[in-house]
Target: Methyltransferase type 11
Amino acid sequence: MTHRNASIFARPELAALARDELALLPVYARRQPSCRALIVYPHVSARALPLDLPAWQVTRLHVEDGRLQGDSSCEPDHLPWPEDSFDLVQVQHAADVLEPIEAFVDEIGRVLRPGGVVLWSGLNALGSWRSWCRLRSGASLPLLPAGALRRLLDRSGLAIEDSYHVGRFWPRSAAAGDRAASAVDVFRAAWVLAARKRRANLTLLARRNVRPAVPARLAAVPSRRACA
Model:
């Protein structure tokens, strides 16, 4: 798998953006019944960032020379865990440093348990950060808009629940923190998609003279669509 300029994510400005994205982890961790998490960073330096996941068993990987290193060593399209291994996954900017990405998306869908959530982030095509990274690194990063990732996640059995725009509008070395939503959020540094793995459909066989129960429908979760 080809890798592109992962070292740009070692810069303090990108580390601040990573902290903004990681702030979503505990929000979703509180909603999960179990405690197995996988985090994939774009660069080894991000492993030094603090995690607010007490009592969780966390496996951490980072991109290095087109492979994933860290708590395990593997190819992105051949993760070494069985199906349904993790309850929560966060993938930070994998599509900004790896290509092609389709097989990796499939693998993330495979190792996530039904009902589990993946948080996947990427640099915003509408923001200034991608151009800034190109000026600093001297080369362009791969471009995967949020809409394209939506389709890949859906193909892998992951349904989008929500989307966010995070980070500052212009690169700085301090995290942006929480900000009120506004019409210009679509120009923030990065988008984050939250997707849940669909549960397998179960066919209920009714006994004779017994009316089968109809399961209640789940409430639809509003989604702030990422436009990048």
